[in-house]
Amino acid sequence: MKYFAPSTVEEAAGLLAQPNTKVFAGATDVIPQIRAGRPEPEALVDLKKIDRLVSVQRTDAKWVIGAATPTARLTGNAELAAEFPGLVEAAGLIGSDQVQSRSSLGGNLCNASPAADSVPAMVVNGVRAVIATPGGGTRTLAVEDVPAGPGRTNLVPGEFVVELEVDRAPARTGDAYLRLIPRTEMDIAVVGAGVRVTLDESGTVTDARVALGAVAPTVVRVQAAEAALIGSKLDDAALAAAAAAASAACNPIDDKRGTIAYRTHVAGVLTRRAAVIAGQRAAEKNGASR
Amino acid sequence: MTIAEDPATTSPGYKWVGTRMIRPDGFEKVTGRARFGADIKLNGMLYGHVLRSPHAHAKIVSIDTSEAEKMAGVRAVITGADFPDPSGPAGDQDLQRNVIAREKALYEGHVIAAVAAQTRAQAKAAAEAIKVVYEVLPHVMTVDEAMAPGAPLLHPKLMTKGVDPAPTEPSNVASRAVYQGGDLDLGFAESDVVVEGTFTTKPVHQGYIEPHAAVADTTPNGRTTLWCSSQGHFTMRSLSAKVLGWEPSKLKVIPAEIGGGFGGKTTIYLEPLAVRLSQKAGRPVKLVMSRDEVFRATGPASGTKIVGKLGFKNDGTMVAGELWMAYEAGAFAGSPAGAGSMTALAPYTVPNFLIEGFDVVVNKPKVAAYRAPGAPMSSFAVESLIDEAAKKLGMDPIDIRLKNAVTEGCQATYGPKFPRIGFVETLEAIKNHPNYKIPLGPNQGRGVASGFWFNAGLNSSATVHVNEDGNVIVVTGSPDIGGSRASMALMAAEEFGIDAARIQPVVGDTESVGYNDQTGGSRTTLATGAAVIEACRKVIADLRGRAAKQWDVSLDKVEWVDGQAQHVEGTQPPLSLADLAKGWNRTGGPLTASAALNARGVGSAFSTQVVDLEVDPDTGHVTVLRYLTAQDAGRAIHPSYVEGQLQGGVVQGLGWALNEEYIFDRNGKMENPGFLDYRIPVASDLPMIDTIVVEVPNPGHPYGVRGVGEVGIVPPLAAVANAVDDAVSRRIHDLPLSPVRILDAIINKDS
Ligand SMILES: Cc1cc2nc3c(=O)[nH]c(=O)nc-3n(C[C@H](O)[C@H](O)[C@H](O)COP(=O)(O)OP(=O)(O)OC[C@H]3O[C@@H](n4cnc5c(N)ncnc54)[C@H](O)[C@@H]3O)c2cc1C
User: Fold this and answer.
1) Can you give the residue range of the structural domain that contains A129?
2) ipTM, 2 dp
C-alpha cells in the first residue's frame, strides 16, 4: 500500500485519478476497516496536508469547513458552536478525545454509515458538500444527497469532498442533535435525531427541519415532522405529531444494536426532545442571532 | 472509605499493614517499561498466525497444508496431528482438544492449524492458504437447545455424571450437581409467600484489556522457555506439558506482566502452539491474539437458565428454596454449575432446599473462570426473588436479608459450618450509610443485593533474601494482577519492622521459586502472603540466632523489634538488619529462607451492595446514579487495592447487568467480537463506586486476611434488576438489562 500526502486539491485530484486509490482524512474509519479485513487499496491519499481541507472560515454569508478538519477544531470554535450548537455537539459525539483529534466531517459523511452522528445535524442545517471532480472542477451536493446506502456514496471515482459549507443561521434559529447509545460514549447511535427550527417574534415556528440517523439505509429527512412543527409554538400536540411522523418515517433493521420496534419508537422520542431543545435555543437567540 | 472495625478484634497496632504505599511496579507500568506478553521480542523470532474454524460445529474431513508450507517466509505449519493423541482423564483430553481441534471443530474460533513465518503478513497469508474440508454439522447454542430431546451431540460419548440410575445414552449434559436439605414440600407448604421465576443470563467475557500472547523458544535439546501473560505460570507449565506430552520440567515459564485476567488467564490457548511451532521451526515463535480471537476463542463466563422458587414466612423467614440451574459450559464440560449451586443460597439459613446444577455443553467457546465463577448468575436469580418477596411482605430489603443471614456456626447449604464471617456486618454497614437514605426522584430506583464467595487457599511458596545492605527481596510465584507486590511488601515490612520501601517484591519464574498455584480464587494475599510471612519469620528466627551468637547469649535473650535485634535487658547495643547482614560471614553466611504451604484457614467473603439508578421511561436507558458496596475483607493489607478490587468487581457486574452479552447469528457465529458492540462500561457510564471495607478478621490468617478479588461481582446483577423494578415496576428476569429490553418491558407490560 502506497501513501501520498498532496498539498493541493489539484494534486490530490491527480492522484485520485489512479485506480484503486482511496482518500482519507482522520482514517478513524479507514484504518479499523482495513484491520478488520477490508481489502487494502493500492494507495492512500492523505487529505490533511491540504490547507484548504483543514480550515474553518466564516464570511457574512456562510461558514466553510474544510472536509478534513479534525472535529476537535469544531468543538473548540466558540463562534461556530454558538451559531450551530446542535451541529457542533453532533460532531463532538464522535468517539473520544483521541478520535476527535483526527476525525472529520468529510470522513463521517463519506464513510456513509447510516449511524454517522454529524450527518443528521448537517442535513437539518442545509449543509452542502463542495466536491472536487476529476476534471479539475467542483460541484456541490446537499449533504443528504451524498450517501447512497450503507458504505456507498453518490461521489464518482476520483471525486472527493473539499469543504462543507453552511449558510449563516437566520435570526431566532436553533438546532439540536440527540442520539441513543446504550453507553454514554464510545458507541454507535442506535437512533439519532437532528432538528432545527426558526421562530418568529411571537415564538411560532416558521421553518423546521428534521432528520434521522440509523433508522434507514441513509439519513432520512422527515418532511411530515417538519410540517407538524411549522406554524406551531412547539406545543404538546405539535411535538407529538412530529414524533409520530418521525416514527412513521423509519425503515430500520433488526440487528445487534437494536430492534425495529425500538428504533421506531425512540426515533419519535428523540425527535420530540431535540425539537424542544432546538426551540429553546431559538428562543434564546431572540433577535440578534449573530 | 469507611472502615467498620470490629472492636473486639481491632488490629494490634500494625505499622505497615493497612497503609497505602505506592505500588512497587507502578513506575514501570506508568512509564511503559513493564513488559507484557506481546512486548517480548527475541532474536530470530518468527510470527505465528492461527487458523480457526469458521463453523460452530463441523467435522474436519481433511486439512491440506502443502500449499501453505511452500509459501514465502513460512517455517512451520502445525495441525492437531502434530500433538500426541488426546489421553488421560476426560478433563485433560478436553484441554488437548480445546487447544487444537482433532476430529471436529466445536465452536467458531476453534483452532484448526497454525503457521510460523518470517512476518505476520506471511503467516496470515499461509494460514489462509491451508485447505480445510469441513462437513458442517447442526449446532446447539443454548441450554434449551442442547438439552432438548434429539439435540445434536457435541461429544458422542458424553454420559451425564451425577444422575441415578446412570444414563445409557450420551447427551450434552456433562453432569448434575445436587445440594439438598430438609423437606422441600413441607417447606413450601408452611410458606406464607412463595416467589418464583425463570431467569436467563448471556455469556459475558472477562474483558481484560491485554489479549493473550505467548513466545516460545525451543532449543535443539528440547529445553523450552515460554514467556506468557497469565494468572499463574506454574499452571501454564503443567497444562502446556499435558498438551505437548512432556514432563513439566522440560518447560521454563517466565511470567510477563499481566494486563488483566479476572479468571480468564487461568488456562492455556496459544502456549502449546507456540512451543510446537518453535520446535518445528527451530526458532523462537511469537503468537498474539487479536481482540476478535480473544472474544471468539477464549473463556467467556457461562450463559445460564435458572428456574427458582423461594418460600417465606410472613415475618420474612426463608423456609424453602428450590433451584434448577443449567450452565453453558461451552464446547467442553466444565461450567461452574457446581459452584453456582453451592453459592446460590449460601448466605442464608434456609432449612428446606433442593438445588440442582447442570453442566451443559454447547457450540460456543469453552467457558473459563470469571471472578467468583458461577456465583453471579445463581445469585441473580436468588437475590431477585428475595427482593420480590421483600416487596410482597412489605419488608426492607436489608431487613429480610438480616433475618436470614448466616453467621458463625451456621451450616452452609453446601455443607460446612461457617467460622467467623462478616455478612451481617456488610448488611448493617449499608443500612447505616447515608446513601441508603437519600430520597429518590421519579423513575429512580434503589436495589439491594448480597453475595457470597468461598475464596481459595491452595499452594504457595515464597523465598526471602536479605541483601548485604540489609534490604530484603521477597520472591513469590504469584503474578501481580491487583497490586499483590505491594501487599507482599507490606506484610514483609510488618514482619521485619522495616520500611516497606526497603522490600523488593519479585515475581519469579518457574525455576526461581517454589511451586505456586495461580493468582485466582482471591487467594494470593491470603496464601502467598502466608508463605511470605512464614519465610520472613524463618529469617527473623535466624537473625535472632545470629545476634545471640554475636553477643554470646542464649536465644531467649534476643528479641526482634522494629527491624533490629535487641537484648531483652538492653545490655547490648541493638543490631539492625544491615548490621547483621554486614556480619554474615562470621555468623553463618547469607540470610535467606523459603516457605511452602498448602493454605488452610480460608476465610469466606460476603458483599452487600446498593445501587441507585434512573431509568429513562421513553428509551429504557439506565443511568447509574450512585453505587455503594460493603465487603468483608478480613484485613485490608493495602486499603487502596482492596477498594480497587471492590470497585472493579462492581464495574464488571454492572457491565454484565446492563449491556454485556455475546451475540450470535443463526449459524452460531459471534456478531460482536470487539469492544464497540461488546459493551463493557466506559468511565463516563459510572458514578464513583463508594466502598465500605468491613474488617472482620479471618481467624485462619496471621493478619486476618480474607480474599477480596471476587465476591464483589456477585451482587450487581440482581442489585441492578431490583433497582430497575423499583424505578419502573418491571421485574425483568433476563440479562442484560439493555435499553431495548427495558423499553420493551415498559411498553409491553405483560410480555
Ligand atoms: C473509537 C471510535 C469511535 C467512533 N465513534 C463514532 C461516533 O460516536 N459517531 C460516529 O458517527 N462515528 C464514530 N466513529 C467513526 C469515525 O470516527 C467517524 O466516522 C469519523 O468522522 C470519520 O472521519 P475520518 O476523517 O477519520 O474518516 P476516514 O477514516 O479518514 O474516512 C472515512 C471514509 O470517508 C472517505 N473520505 C474521507 N474524507 C473524504 C473526503 N474529503 N472526500 C471523500 N471521501 C472521504 C474515506 O475514503 C473513507 O471511506 C468512531 C470511530 C472510532 C475508531
Assistant:
1) 50-167
2) 0.95
